[in-house]
Amino acid sequence: MLTVFNIQRYSIHDGNGVRTNIFFKGCPLRCSWCNNPESLDPAPSIMFDERICHKFGECRRIGNGGIILENDKLVINRDLILDTTVYNNICPSKALIVSGQEKTVLQILQEIEKDIPFYNMSGGGVTLTGGEPLSQGAELIDLIIQLKKRGIHVSAETSLHLPWETIENYVNLIDLFLVDLKHLDNDKFTEYTGGNATLVMENFKKLDETGRKFIVRVPVIPGFNFSSAELFAIIDFAAGLKHVSEINFIPFHALAKEKYLMLGKDYTFGNHRCIEKSELKPFTEYAERKGLISKILN
Amino acid sequence: MISDIKTTEITERIAKLKSNVLSARSTICTERAGFYTEIYQEFERSPVILKRAYALEKTLKKMTIFISEGELIVGNQSSKLRAAPIFPEYVTSWIINELDEFEKRPGDAFYITGEQKQELKEICSWWKGKTLIERGYSLMSPLNREIHDSGIIRAEGNLTSGDAHIAVNFEKILDIGLGGYLQSIELIQNKLTDSDARFFEKQDFYNALIIGIKAFQTFIRRFETLSFELSQCETDLRRKSELVKISEICNSISENPPSGFYEALQLTWFVQLILQIESNGHSVSLGRMDQYLYRFYKNDIIPGKINEDFALELLENTWLKLLSVNKIRSWSHTRYSAGGPLYQNVTIGGQTIDGKDAVNELSFLILDSVGRMKLTQPNLSIRFHKNISDEFLTECVNVIGKGFGMPAFNNDEIVIPSLIDLGIKKDDAYNYSAIGCIEIAVPGKWGYRCTGMSFLNFMRVFLAAMNNGLDEMSGKTFHIGTGNFEDFNRFSDLMLAWKDQVGFYTRATVEIDTAADLALEELVPDILCSAFVDDCISRGKTIKEGGSVYDFISGLQVGIANLGNSLAAIKKLVFEEATISKETLTENLKNNFEGKDGEKIRQLLLNYAPKYGNDDDYVDKLLYEAYMYYIDELTKYHTTRFGRGPFGCRYYAGTSSISSNVPSGSVVPATPDGRKAFTPLAEGSSPTSGTDTLGPTAVFKSVSKLPTNKILGGVLLNQKLAPSALTNETQKQKLISIIRTFFETLKGWHVQYNIVSRDTLLAAKKNPENYRDLVVRVAGYSAFFTTLSPDTQDDIIARTEQSL
Ligand code: SF4
Questions:
Q1: Would you call B781 an interface residue with chain A, using a CB distance cutoff of 8 Å?
Q2: Which of B383, B412, B441 is the last residue of a domain?
Q3: Is B123 part of a structural domain of the chain?
Q4: Domain finish residue from B410, B441, B472
Q5: Do the domain assignments include residue B506?
Q6: Cβ–Cβ below 8 Å for B781 and A254
């Protein structure tokens, strides 16, 4: 089974053509600005949108006190909930949902196949994303093989924060890697993501050596890497690799704020300002000078 | 060439004319009503066709005409700009009843003077007992009258207005001119012998046509004289020469075919105008303007007789003329057509009769001029086909990006084969154009109302099917059902109940149409409109008597998505999963989900059953099946012209609901799709607002699963587009590629785009439950707007304002 929290058709902002994005759950990193906080936990997560809650109370009737009403407010004690899936399809108004569904390869394929005519016309396909899609294991490989059989283009967004042995399995299967390059400094990387920058950079080099073209994606995050020194260093690193087809800058936005609230998580980046496209111009110019094709995504 | 046009602004002249039209208050003009009444009184005993010819003649000779400062295209509908003429022969009852309310209407108010009120009261009192609507009602069986009054079927528009919904043969008018028409009528009339079975009728008909066309010529010559007189006292030399030119043009086209683009456009407008003085039907459409005007354009532009800027000015002036036409409808009818639109359609693009791309420079020019004006008229339709260029589509998308809902697309790839299947000649099928909003016909050869006549309220019928035939709103059982929902043991029992009820009401719509048709034929035959539609002249018949080459009309259904969603919810939640019992459901429908647990039941219906618009076969197939029962029944019937000349005289389905989904919903109690009582129904074939959560490709898939080749009355699909969706070229190309897929691969029928406005976003912030489909898509992330935090929502709202 693969754990998927969203299958998003008509995705038009990442990659070529019209794509279906498959969002997988589970991530080895914990970037403090993460846009998809529901992706982090490999197990299904409870999300609760108070604004559309009618207080029907269905959710309180099951489980052992995981969800209670306190001062006319619904309180979710996530620590007490061992199996979130019992809350699946419980809430009539879907104010409380379980994000993340176990799906078979076939089930995912069926969803993907629905938009084949659109991929064909637009030169689109599928983007595997998450979370960290490559940490899904063998069944993901099955899925990709099935997609290849159908002639569907497959991209994968990855943090490369995985053992090279794992990544290696995908090198010849994925048509296009979209790889995150967040920071070069080990301490800062660890501080903000809980991970190891060296591992990522090593994997970048190994990926580069395979000779496959890939896109480097730089999340531009205020307070983390949004400074000339840091971004120039990142660009320099990318420019030093041989098979980078493009570098993309993704300016920070705080759209995920409400999702943190729904997950009962703190969001330290919730009040950070958004970055305007124009502020990134010096960096795209710098990247171009370094011989990289460069784009700002929005 | 095209890129230059996009950047230039409208000229000062056009800007001024535009502000004049937009700022003109809607008023009433009583002139036409007065002339028609006088003639009807004077010639009370004459055949109706002659009465109408004399009345038209008097109107065209005597009505106030004017030429506004700066205008290049002339011709006015009534005594003042945006004054709506009154057509007492159709209906007077609502005029009398609402006379004092015209100014107080919450939308579409009309201003009227006390004197005019008095005049109208007198006029209307004479018409009592003589009007179309009275005749129409008297022709309906008592049962049908009751059904009509119950609101399950609405046919009011047919009996309060003329027919229209037609495009006349502009190609031929421009080819032979008004003089040519006169000659051909006289030629045929001279051959008429008294051995002809319809000798007297035909004589009267031809005489009426001759009177009508001559009056039309007089009308044009009045403008010749007026502009000449104005030129005499004009001091501005440039304007003086413009007025002289207008005078020359009017002189020439009153008799001869036009010789250049300017003349051709002026004549086209005169025809369009005159049809809307003769009758008050709306959706009088201009057909394939980029085709029939092209030869004039080319002949003028190549030798440099006109330049593009001037051609643009002329087109824009014409669009303002279209906007100047006004129509007052009864308040109840106004609610079905919010904003008082007249749906004067212009169709461009498509293919030539030999299957080549028909897009030409004039197509681009028309598209750009409409985009620059951003008006509600004309209704611009693009005929899509697989060889249409990306360059043209990009231009279309640019205009869509301006956010005024135009242009709409119709798809040759489904329409043409469907027309040929119906038996339409290939050349004609390739020459179809849109009429009104989205419906289609072969211009100049098709009868009225390809758009349909009566609205059938699917959800009222569905509720009756659940209630053993009882219509709760009226408390009447018009057709005894197959049982009560509580007694149905299987889902198929419900489907059978629907089949039975919808069969009955389909037949009733045709009967009601027939009553309206007979009354229209008898009391308000059109003269000029018939003259300009083939083969009325050679057959010696008005369109309503069977004069047109083709005659097909559509039924109009409201509540398509609601029907599918209701069936799916019942099948899944009641019969398969037994989450909701039959009794609970019926009880909640009756009390509008207001009892204990009512909202919970409603949320279950909304959230736990598949919804049409999400590419889910479960619901899409149920809808197909249910819809086909209606279509199978409808196609059994004929129109009143059957056997009298035209090919066809049959019905097909049509989902165009204009804005009728709102008022139609206002008479429907709660429905099993979780819709609350008296709220709007879904629009056209679009998904219920807020339920299509998987984006546009899923909507396209669902819509294309409908029996679109049998819904030639149009499969209306409105799509919402976030303003951010068109910010760069790549995104535009992606939009084009999904439109191409929808049309080429999925054989979709129609689509039009509304850019999500600031107001919509504000409403979504306030009532998230109704806007769950609104998506904000950004890289690596996409969110439903309603799940965003309030400050993020505000931010997006603020940005929307900027980009629009
Ligand atoms: S790698 Fe991506 S999904 Fe994982 S925590 Fe970082 S931002 Fe979130």
A1: yes
A2: B441
A3: no
A4: B441
A5: no
A6: no
Alpha helices (H) in chain A, listed in sequence order: 105-113, 116-122, 138-149, 164-171, 186-193, 197-209, 228-239, 257-263, 281-289
Residue B419 predicted with pLDDT over 50: yes
Q: How large is the average pLDDT for residues B341-349? A: 92
pTM above 0.90, yes or no: yes
The answer to whether the CB of B673 falls within 8 A of the CB of B547 is no
Contact call for residues A178 and A217 (beta carbons, < 8 A): yes
Q: What is the total count of domains within chain B? A: 2
What's the topology of domain A45-98? Alpha-Beta Plaits (3.30.70)
Q: What is the DSSP string of B478-489?
A: SS--S-BGGG--
Cα dihedral sign, B411-B416-B418-B419 = positive
Task: Write the residue with the smallest CA distance to atom 3 of ligand 1.
Answer: A131
Banded model confidence at residue A184, pLDDT cuts 50, 70, 90: very high
Select from A8, A117, A250 the Cβ nearest to the Cβ of B782. A8
Can the peptide bond before residue A117 be classed as cis, meaning omega within 30 degrees of 0? no
Three-state SS for B374?
Answer: coil
- Residue B465 CA to residue A193 CA, distance in Å, equals 60
The SS3 of residue B112 is coil
Inter-chain touch A9–B697, beta carbons under 8 Å: yes
Ligand 1 mutation pick, A23, A29, A199, max ligand atoms within 8 A of CB: A29
Residue for token pair 């609601």? B562
pLDDT of residue B803: 41
Residue B454 included in any domain: no
**Structural domain includes residue B362:** yes
* Count of all residues that appear for chain A in the document: 298
Q: Which domain holds residue B381?
A: 12-22+164-441
A2-41+101-296: in CATH 3.20.20.70: yes
**Residues flanking ligand 1, CB < 6 Å:** A 27, 29-31, 34, 36, 39-40, 130-132, 159, 193
